[in-house]
Amino acid sequence: MRLAIISDIHGNWDAFQAVLKNMDRAGVDAVVCLGDNIGYGPEPNEVIAALQQRNIPSVLGNHELAFLQPERLAWFNPTARQSLSLTFERLSEGSRSYISRMEAVLVDHGCRFVHGFPPDSVTTYYFELAEEATCKTFDTYAETYCFIGHSHDLVLLACRQGRLENRPLTEGLLELEPGNRHIVNAGSVGQPRDGDNRAKYLIWDSTGSVLEVRYVAYDIAAVARKIIDAGLPEIHAKRLW
User: Fold this and answer.
1) 167 and 201 in contact (C-beta within 8 Å)?
2) Domains in the chain, start-ordered, CATH in brackets?
3) What is d(CA 229, CA 225) in angstroms, rounded to the nearest whole number?
4) What digits encode the pLDDT tens for the residues 58-101?
5) Which of 113, 152, 196, 207 has its CB 3.0 to 4.6 Å from that of 106, i.e. a possible disulfide?
């Protein structure tokens, strides 16, 4: 089973298109999205339409949660709040309906998928928990592998004998020890924050317990222009670089 995991597209349709093409060439059996399909980027409706057309399930991200619960906008910094307010105004009826049906957790393919942190948090960052609390989290759900987003990082977490292992992920293949439980942060398609401006996504091969991190180049300048032309905060264009 070759499962692609994508996260944090953030309205970046150009990056998502590049990832979809790369994914098609790689030959995957299924795809799961970890949320934050909207916010920051200029084309959220196109992103959501593609998810629907390809029947890609997506869990709820904190940006979608803010659409459903506007009081949560106060949680965001001023520029993110401005971007989200403009995004919400421009969402199509189809996008609004799609977001209203999103769930916080998906359990499928023998794995758990959640935007923030297991077992079911949409808003918690993996780095907010102390080492002991993170290790205890593994006891709160049954699945061997949990995939998360939210931080835009590529990180692998495991707990051995009460000690947390926290390692960054880089491009390429990594064989995971079968049976050992892991939390995998999938990075970001639309706005990476790991020092490399290419779009990121994962392919999990359950047959061989192999995790592949893929980097995909796309036309960043074109997206930056779209962000500015849409009247969204310029900082979100600059952060793509």
Assistant:
1) no
2) 2-238 (3.60.21.10)
3) 6
4) 999 999 999 999 999 999 999 999 999 999 999 999 999 999 99
5) 113
